Each structure stands twice: as structure tokens, then as C-alpha cells.
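Hi support team,

I've been running sequence recovery on a batch of backbones for a student project. Most finish fine, but this one hangs at about 90% for roughly twenty minutes before it completes. I'm not sure whether the input is malformed or the queue is just slow. I've pasted the C-alpha cells below so you can try to reproduce it. Let me know if you need the job ID as well.

Thanks,
M.K.
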């Protein structure tokens, strides 16, 4: 265990103060032991992956940060058991080589498998939940399995996001057989597309705000009024990109302190080098207010504040 550990080292945005306690864990047993230590010591705790979707506070975290590095992998035909601390892209590369299809379009999504399940991640019409069978978790007392249905997946939402006492340990997927070369090509094409958006070296958490799910807009009068302002070609997979709304209100290139919006994409907030979390919060507030005024819609963060 380490003390007064910089949160900047743990998140892609490179902001945040100090964590009072910090520990890396490589097994389910050590993760559970760390949680039990925190509870016995009456210390708050937070389990994280690679910090790609996390905004830590400038004041730090007065508790224990547990970095999940559970990287087991078991393959039995098309059934795959994956530890939650595995890097998602590395796992996809391994599955592609094995000729196991289902996750290849998510190549390039940053973070871990556990983080992707937590946030119900997806891209280009493919979601982490699509081939998921069940999730292994620690509920604070014992290890359990949740079926896909029990995970209550919605767009960028899950039971794990709403109830943080459930700690994801791993997951079982049922994939399909496919030509490895075909899977490799699909993943490489997706990675090329993502690199145009998330440029090398940019300190950002990926997409900052959730896209707007058309079917979830209510009441009906609001939906009708909102859609009247949206070109039909902007409705993609039943969603309207928040990036389009943000670019319409002039978000590209906006700045607040050392935190800015990328000039090439309206839904990409980045740290120019010495930004603070309070600047992120303020810029997000400004952007949400502008979108609300123009479209009558509330944007919701995809990122998590710590």
C-alpha cells in the first residue's frame, strides 16, 4: 500500500489531488481483502480501472483507491471468461487472433473490460453487453454472478453505475467463430477512425457527454420540438451525437482556464497541461447551459467525478 499517491498518475486527463491510500491488486482475493481493510479501518474506498473516464477532485481522495489489475483469461471454445482488470483493446486483439468475434468493433475504446461493463460502453453499433452472458461480482459480503438481465444495461448505464457496492471481478462472454484476418481488419479500421477523433497525446477522457437517445426523450412535446431542430442524417443508431449539439452552439475551441474543447470535435474536453478539476466542472456547466438554451435538452456527463 502507498500513501498520499497522486491521482494524476491514474487518469488520462492527468488532473486531481492526492489519494490518502493507494493499492494495486492483481487477484480477486487481494481486491476483496483491500475492500475489507477499508471497511474495518472506516475508510472510504473506490475501485478504478485505467482511469480513462474518471475526473478526480483537486482536493484529492481521503480514502483508499484500489486499482483493479485482475487480468485472468480463460477460453473454452466460444465461451470466454475475462478478468475485469484486462485492458479492453489488448483483449480484443487476443480474441481476434483466436478467431472469436463480437467485440472487434470496440477496438480503441480506452480502459478495462470492467470499466466497459460498468459504463455499458459501445461504439459503431456494437456494445459490450451484446455477447455478454453474466458478470462476476463482489457484493460486499460474497462473490456472486449476475445474468445480463440483472445488470440492467441501458445506453451508458448499468446496475454497477447506479449501485457502486457491486464490484465487477470478471465476466463471461459467448462469442462467435470468424476468420481472424477479417476481425483484425475490422478492428484496424475502427482504430484509424478513432485516431482522427482522439489524437495521439491528447489528455482527455474520451467522449465527455452521453449522446442523446431519441427513444428516451420525454415528454412527447419536447421530443417533437427538439427533433424539429435536428437534421435527419444526424440521427445515428437511434441517437443524436452530443458532439453535433455542442458544435452547433460553438463549443469547438472553447476554453476555461487550462481546460479546453478540442478544435476538431465538440464532445472532447482536454487538459492543456496544468488544468484543474474545478475548471472541467465549470466548462461542462457552461456547455450544458448553452445546449439547454439552444435545444431545450439536458446533456449528461458520460465521465464519472471522483
Amino acid at each position: 500500500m502507498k500513501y498520499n499517491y497522486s491521482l494524476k498518475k491514474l487518469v488520462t486527463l492527468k488532473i486531481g489531488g492526492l489519494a490518502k491510500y493507494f493499492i494495486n491488486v492483481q487477484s480477486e482475493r487481494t481486491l476483496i481483502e483491500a475492500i475489507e481493510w477499508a471497511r474495518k479501518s472506516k475508510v472510504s474506498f473506490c475501485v478504478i480501472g485505467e482511469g480513462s473516464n474518471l475526473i478526480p477532485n483537486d482536493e484529492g481522495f481521503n480514502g483508499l483507491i484500489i486499482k483493479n489489475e485482475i487480468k485472468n483469461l480463460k477460453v473454452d471454445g466460444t465461451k470466454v471468461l475475462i478478468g475485469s482488470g484486462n485492458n479492453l483493446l489488448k483483449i480484443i486483439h487476443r480474441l481476434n487472433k483466436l478467431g472469436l468475434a463480437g467485440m472487434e468493433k470496440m477496438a480503441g475504446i480506452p480502459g478495462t473490460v470492467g470499466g466497459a461493463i460498468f459504463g455499458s460502453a459501445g461504439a459503431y453499433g456494437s456494445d459490450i453487453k451484446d455477447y455478454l452472458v453474466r458478470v462476476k461480482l463482489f457484493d460486499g459480503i460474497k462473490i456472486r454472478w449476475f445474468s445480463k438481465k440483472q445488470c440492467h444495461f441501458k445506453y451508458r448505464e448499468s446496475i454497477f453505475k447506479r449501485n457502486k457496492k457491486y464490484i465487477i471481478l470478471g465476466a463471461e462472454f459467448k462469442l462467435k467463430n470468424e476468420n481472424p484476418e477479417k476481425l483484425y481488419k475490422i478492428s484496424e479500421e475502427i482504430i484509424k477512425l478513432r485516431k482522427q477523433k482522439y489524437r495521439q497525446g491528447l489528455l482527455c477522457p474520451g467522449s465527455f457527454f452521453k449522446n442523446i437517445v431519441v427513444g428516451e426523450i420525454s415528454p412527447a412535446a419536447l421530443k417533437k420540438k427538439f427533433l424539429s431542430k435536428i437534421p435527419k442524417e444526424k440521427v445515428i443508431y437511434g441517437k443524436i451525437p452530443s458532439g453535433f449539439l455542442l458544435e452547433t452552439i460553438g463549443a469547438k475551441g472553447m476554453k476555461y482556464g487550462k481546460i479546453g474543447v478540442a478544435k476538431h470535435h465538440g464532445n472532447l474536453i482536454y487538459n492543456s497541461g496544468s488544468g484543474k478539476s474545478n475548471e472541467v466542472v465549470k466548462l461542462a456547466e457552461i456547455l450544458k447551459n448553452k445546449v439547454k438554451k439552444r435545444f431545450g435538452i439536458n446533456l449528461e456527463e458520460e465521465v464519472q467525478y471522483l
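--
Follow-up from support: It reproduced on our side and the slowdown came from queue contention, not your input. Helices lie at 28-40, 88-97, 113-118, 159-162, 180-197, 220-227, 242-248, 277-295. No action needed from you.
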